[in-house]
Amino acid sequence: MPETDEFGVTSFCYRRRRPFHPARLHALLFGEGGEDVEREGGREGGTEGGQAGPAEGPLGSLIRVKGYLWLATHMQHMVFWSLAGSVHSFTANEEEKWLAAIDPVEWPETLTAAELRAHWEPMWGDRRQEIVFIGVHMEQAKVEEALDACLLTEEEMTRMTPGDWAEVFVDPFVREGTDGRDDESELGSEGEDELGDD
Fold first, then answer.
1. What angle is formed at CA 71 by the lines to CA 146 and CA 60, rounded to 5 degrees?
2. How many other C-beta atoms are found inside a 10 Å radius of the C-beta of residue 64?
3. Torsion-angle region of residue 179: left (phi > 0), alpha (psi -120 to 50) or beta?
4. H/E segment holding residue 24
5. Where is this region: Disordered (predicted)?
6. Could you read off the pLDDT of 43-76 as tens digits, one per residue?
7. Nearest Cα to 102, choosing from 114, 116, 91?
8. Distance (Å, rounded) from C-alpha 82 to C-alpha 10?
9. By the 8 A CB rule, do 43 and 176 touch?
10. Measuring CA to CA, how many Å separate 136 from each of 14, 55, 59?
11. Is 124 exposed, middle or buried (0-12, 13-18, 19+ CB in 10 A)?
């Protein structure tokens, strides 16, 4: 019997084509805030970067998470999510932008037409969720349901623009002391940094 069967370890890849609401995702992972976490006048700073999440709920069985996500307030950069044990890490790299945010003349020369077709859609380009979850006695359907509840709703997708998302949604993943804009100053001068506290 494989060890994964003996110890109840399973995995799956979560793929979706709409962005996460940053505050709803943060509330799911760290038990902070609530669903209606919006304000006028732009985004607030947050406190993320190597933070332990709750051990209960549908995500309590997770032992490893690795992949990249699309936050509604980060239209330019991929955000890499890593979980080891109970500590979550979210990082963004200035070199790792969505292809949709880059001039096509700057796309990698190794990019094939087949690869582009596999990840591209007319409205949002290659922006997407692609995250691998590994857990012990993990209930995949419940994990997916919890994550799906953090995605933007149909109304948020159709009645708001990305500019609205940036101005209205509170983003707890943005480190304090920044204005929340999706540019190099937010990510740090070294190119890669935690989105939360230094």
1. 30
2. 14
3. alpha
4. helix 22-30
5. 35-57, 175-198
6. 333 334 566 665 578 888 999 999 999 999 999 9
7. 116
8. 17
9. no
10. 17, 12, 10
11. middle
Count Cβ atoms below 10 Å from residue 33 Cβ, excluding itself: 14
Using the Cα atoms of residue 84, residue 132, residue 26 and residue 141 in order, give the sign of their dihedral. Answer: negative
CA distances from 120 to 123, 172, 197 (A): 9, 28, 33
Task: Please report the pLDDT score of residue 182 as a whole number.
Answer: 46
| pTM (predicted TM-score) | 0.78
| Rounded Cα–Cα distance for residues 182 and 162 (Å) | 12
Euclidean distance between CA atoms 66 and 189, whole angstroms? 24
pLDDT given at position 156: 98
Q: Domains of the chain, with CATH numbers?
A: 3-178 (3.30.1220.10)
Integer CA distances (angstroms), 78 to 32, 62, 73, 93, 117, in order:
23, 22, 11, 8, 19
CB atoms within 10 A of CB 82: 15
Angle between helices 22-30 and 140-148 (to 10 degrees): 140
- Residue 102 clears pLDDT 70, i.e. is over it: yes
Stretch (H or E) spanning 145: helix 140-148
Contact 196, 90 (CB under 8 A): yes
SS3 (DSSP) at 14:
strand
